[in-house]
């Protein structure tokens, strides 16, 4: 089973670095928000993964109650890309992306890319992703990952879609590919780099998105980066079922928990939660044409 298909809530996305278990304290307040007063968009969610197959309608209902206006379910291979499209067809607030995660790029055939191209043209598909390079899991040769990343970038450009980029321990190579292929629309998901990387990402015209890891007690460095970078370039995401925010550590993450990350970011930026919701949602609507 690929790592992303597992049901547990270990933070696969960023792994052990910066991740700590412990008491639920992160300086974020309580978050039972009245329906309709706030608006957030979860720009990277995996309700298309097995972790949600039983109860996704309840999860979506809870998300609505915390002010989630849209959920983008991100594909990681062909089956999960198809499932994301299925959910988008069934559920008003769901959108889909299609793509092959770098750790699933081994053994892909030309037919698979053709199928992906067909899926990318379905209704409510708003991006190609998640694609990129993952040198942490080390299960797929770098050259294979790179070729697949490049092919999917070409597909995104052909269809004029933004890309959702997965970058794990591969900063330099990811940047090099993005530059070489002149990628101008997309997001570096689950950002955990430093300010220099953030600046390089912006100079390409790309966005940065934050997950629950922004709320982790030991992630002062990431909060310092968030303080410096412009709101206009920021998106919010859960990457659920992974990376639950601090008050939900150890639990399965879900879109309704996005508000904890939003609260942390609003505090860092010194603005209201409402304002943060408006700006980040506008950014998401613009990038993904929701
Ligand atoms: Ni993801």
Molecular structure report:
It is a single chain. The protein has 290 residues and is α/β, with parallel strands linked by helices. It has one domain: TIM Barrel (Alpha-Beta Barrel). The chain is built from nine helices and eight strands. Strands 1-2-3-4-5-6-7-8 form an eight-stranded parallel sheet. Strand 3, helix 3 and strand 4 form a beta-alpha-beta unit. Helix 2 runs parallel beside helix 3 and helix 8 crosses helix 9. The longest helix is centred in the middle third of the chain and has 17 residues. The radius of gyration is 17 Å and the shape is globular. It starts with 39 loop residues before the first strand and ends with a helix. Bound molecules: nickel (II) ion (NI). The site of nickel (II) ion has 5 residues, from loops.
Uncertain segments are 3-35
The top-level CATH class is Alpha Beta
Q: CATH superfamily name?
A: Metal-dependent hydrolases
The CATH topology turns out to be: TIM Barrel
How many β strands by DSSP?
8
How is the secondary structure organized here?
Elements lengths: L39 E6 L10 H10 L2 E7 L3 H13 L3 E5 L11 H11 L4 E10 L7 H17 L4 E6 L2 H10 L5 E3 L6 H9 L3 E4 L9 H9 L5 E3 L21 H12 L3 H16 L2
Parallel strand pairs: 1-2, 2-3, 3-4, 4-5, 5-6, 6-7, 7-8
Helix pairs in contact: 2-3, 8-9
Provide key terms for this protein.
eight-stranded parallel sheet, 9 helices, binds nickel (II) ion, TIM Barrel
């Amino acid at each position: 089973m690929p790592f992303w298909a597992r049901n547990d809530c270990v933070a696969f996305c960023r792994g052990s670095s910066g991740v700590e278990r412990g008491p639920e304290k992160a300086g974020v307040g309580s978050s039972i928000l009245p329906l309709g007063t706030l608006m957030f968009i979860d720009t990277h969610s995996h309700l298309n993964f097995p972790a949600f197959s039983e109860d996704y309608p309840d999860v979506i209902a809870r998300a609505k109650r915390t002010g989630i206006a849209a959920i983008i379910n991100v594909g990681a291979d062909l089956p999960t890309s198809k499932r994301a499209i299925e959910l988008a067809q069934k559920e008003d607030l769901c959108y889909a992306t299609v793509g092959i995660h770098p750790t699933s790029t081994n053994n892909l055939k030309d037919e698979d890319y053709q199928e992906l191209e067909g899926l990318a043209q379905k209704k409510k598909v708003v991006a190609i992703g998640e694609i990129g390079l993952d040198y942490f899991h080390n299960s797929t040769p770098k050259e294979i990952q790179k070729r697949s990343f490049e092919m999917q970038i070409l597909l995104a450009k052909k269809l004029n879609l933004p890309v959702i980029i997965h970058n794990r321990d591969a900063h330099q190579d990811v940047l090099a590919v993005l530059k070489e292929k002149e990628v101008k629309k997309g997001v570096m998901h689950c950002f955990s780099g430093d300010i220099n990387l953030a600046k390089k990402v912006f100079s390409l015209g790309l966005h940065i998105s934050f997950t629950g890891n922004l709320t982790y007690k030991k992630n002062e460095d990431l909060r310092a980066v968030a303080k410096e970078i412009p709101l206009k370039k920021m998106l919010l995401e859960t990457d659920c079922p992974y990376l639950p925010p601090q008050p939900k550590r150890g639990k399965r993450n879900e879109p309704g928990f996005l508000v904890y990350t939003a609260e942390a970011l609003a505090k860092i930026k010194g603005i209201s939660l409402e304002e943060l919701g408006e700006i980040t949602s506008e950014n998401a609507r613009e990038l993904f044409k929701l």
